Sequence to fold (347 residues):
Amino acid sequence: MRESGTGQIIDVLCLAMLIAFGSSLLVTAHPVNLEEHAQSYSSSLARSCLLSLQKVPVNEFEPVTYRPPLNVGWYSELNLKNKTPAQLILEDVLINPEIKAGETLATVASNIEFHDKVQILLKKCLSELVRGVFGYRLIARMEPVTLSSGAELGFELTVENIPRESKRLCSESVSLTLPNSDRLPLGEPLDPIVIITLELWS
Amino acid sequence: MSQLSVGEDLFSTIAAVGLISIFVSVLAQVYNQNDARIESQKEFDITLDVAEQLKSYVLCESSSSGQLGLVSQTKFETSLPRFLELMLKRGVKIKAELVSLDGRLIACSGPTITRDSSSVSLPVVLSHSDGTREVCRLNVTAWRK
Fold:
């Protein structure tokens, strides 16, 4: 009788352990993946941000002026308020491209001040558009173009504000062509493409 | 073996029934939470889909006008009510508003929000009649009837 009772208690304890284990699995289970929400929303937000960067004049965010480096004894300051941020990125590619010859990397920076202004503007734009909901990284990159001398002409600009230990949620890109290829310091017919990629991070 | 041991058997039965009851109640709660999550996910998907449609088609200038991707306030006043009506017939209530970056309400359409619902906010470019452009936020809230 005593042995039978002890056996039953052990059975009940085993059952209790199984039930506790099953319950804990159920409680910790997340049948709906909430990350999918964040991914679908961030993709949509990134596309909207890229569209805004192509359509809105910079005056909406921060006025940008540009002083062309002309050695003609006078200068005039251009107000670029009606250009879009995307157009300013293209201007930056034309003004401050990078040339890579072998292992040597040189910047043909005719106006590095303009490069800095574009970076500040993009940070301001993205802060306004993303509004701190996500972290962001914007990369503007020109596909390397090989010159007749064998050197490569390229460009890369990165603006980011990514919180620590965050995870990339989405990456959306748009390809733009340079508005006036013959303004590049080359004598060759080129059709460079600048790819602007916007990543959003959780 | 067939003898009844009152103390131990009663304890075992009470313990088993108690544990099974706890398990069943946890199971019911988890199922309820799961249903609520699925419903919330569906509402969010609908809201995001509606916001995308508004941004890309309903409120958008036609491609022939060269204003592709731009939202127009005229479209907000003319096309949006028809779209809201159509969605209402499908059992989805929608409230849409255009808010400037400094928080000024530019336009609003749709019924008053009566319960907890999914909301999505996307940046859009508003094209004014004088040709100027402005960044706004399109806030869309959707819920099922």
Summary: Residues 6-58 of chain B form the longest helix (53 residues).
